[in-house]
């Protein structure tokens, strides 16, 4: 797996809480900003704002825009992320250990 998100983009990811079962990250970025390739374990993401395109390590492209407060599950993966919207992105990530 690639490097941890907080290591790759410390200006965009911050650890809000961590224990032996979960790590909660707050993610923020700006329109047109790209986050280099990084990895996450299984996680639940709660979208606050933004429209994103992610490109997985194998080249699969996924684009999404979720309403604020919508929670989604994502299996462990390695990817890069682009903010393709016109507003700042804001997502809470609950990584499962």
Tell me what the structure shows.
With 97 residues, the protein is mostly beta strands. It has a single domain (5-96), classed as Jelly Rolls (Sandwich). The protein has one helix at residues 5-8, and strands at residues 13-18, 22-29, 34-40, 43-49, 51-56, 61-65, 71-74, 77-83, 89-96. A five-stranded antiparallel β-sheet has the order 1-2-9-4-7, with no helix packed on it. The longest helix has 4 residues, at 5-8. The protein is globular and about 35 Å long.
Give structural attributes:
97 residues, mainly beta, Jelly Rolls, 4% helix, 60% strand, globular
Give a quick account of the main beta sheet: strands, pairing sense, barrel closure.
Answer: 5 strands, antiparallel
**Strand elements, count:** 9
CATH topology assignment = Jelly Rolls
Binned, the helix content reads under 10%
Report a brief summary of the structure.
The protein is mainly β and 97 residues long.
Could you give the topology of this structure?
Elements lengths: L4 H4 L4 E6 L3 E8 L4 E7 L2 E7 L1 E6 L4 E5 L5 E4 L2 E7 L5 E8 L1
Antiparallel strand pairs: 1-2, 2-9, 3-8, 4-7, 4-9, 5-6, 5-8
